[in-house]
């Protein structure tokens, strides 16, 4: 028996082929009734989208790469889960690569690993410079995560400077006057740590608190042992403080352990806040206050931007071998929906690079507030 095609599903459901395509690609502007009828026909006929044909016809592999510094940093592991989930919605497979924050590895990823087996890259760079990113002719489409290195690439991040200002401002509102920044960097630069340090210093200035360079506590890495060692060092040196702004949750969790071992009460003696809202902070004792980036939104926006760039770089007509249209809304209205629609601003032609700032929020738990809900 021949494999059912999209026209067979359309005939069985009594709708147009375009409507079947829109249902397959989860286009929003399809009525619930029509969606139910089409899905029932798909199930009864045993129709399956020809993904291999879809990608090959457009000169694609259906694979994108997510390149992060370290997979065992919980933030990146949680982000990867969200990226995979978003990619699956677009029938894309995600290859995850760990760069180790090494420039050579990041350059190799930027160049598509010297091959054509990835259609595009979502990259969280730590070692690359603006010069590295300036000339990307012949490289796969790329979306950058984190702080912006240049204006010529699609980019997704939270406002790290603003987030650090708000977190520090909260500590000051609790009456804390000697706030240390664990992982802070007192230097110009475009990195995440530099941006968060600027926000920290801005909050101090806003409150009329003089900045002491010694309040920036350097770390060798952004892992729990580094946070534990850094706080042990300032305690050993007799530094007085009543709050810690830790530039990620791993540093904060390490700091909590050292404070506990030295008999320092949290938050009674020292209030602690971190960044990233990783799962471990919800189960630590005390639970950890943190800046929570919307990781799901970061992943969604990054995949959408990359998908658009891939579409721009390959077959412009957007049609698949089996008749489905993965960007159906781009080409006009659904004939059976009775209304027009667009997908996230998609339109014909190449669009200028996008700089997307995703929301964040303060999550206040026991490490600054005492017992939650009190």
Please characterize this protein's 3D structure.
This protein is an alpha/beta fold and about 375 residues long. The chain is about 40% helix and about 15% strand. A 6-stranded parallel β-sheet has the order 2-1-3-4-5-11, sandwiched between helices. The protein is elongated. The relative contact order is 0.15. About 10% of the residues have low confidence.
Topology of this protein?
Elements: H1 6-13, H2 17-24, H3 32-45, H4 51-57, E1 63-68, H5 74-89, E2 93-98, H6 103-110, E3 120-123, H7 130-134, E4 142-145, E5 154-157, H8 160-173, E6 179-182, H9 192-206, E7 216-217, H10 224-236, E8 243-246, H11 249-261, E9 271-275, E10 289-293, H12 295-313, E11 355-357, E12 360-363, H13 366-369
Parallel strand pairs: 1-2, 1-3, 3-4, 4-5, 5-11, 6-7, 6-8, 8-9, 9-10
Antiparallel strand pairs: 10-12
Helix pairs in contact: 1-2, 1-3, 5-12, 8-9, 10-11
Which features does this protein show?
single chain, 374 residues, alpha/beta, six-stranded parallel β-sheet, six-stranded mixed β-sheet, 12 strands, 39% helix
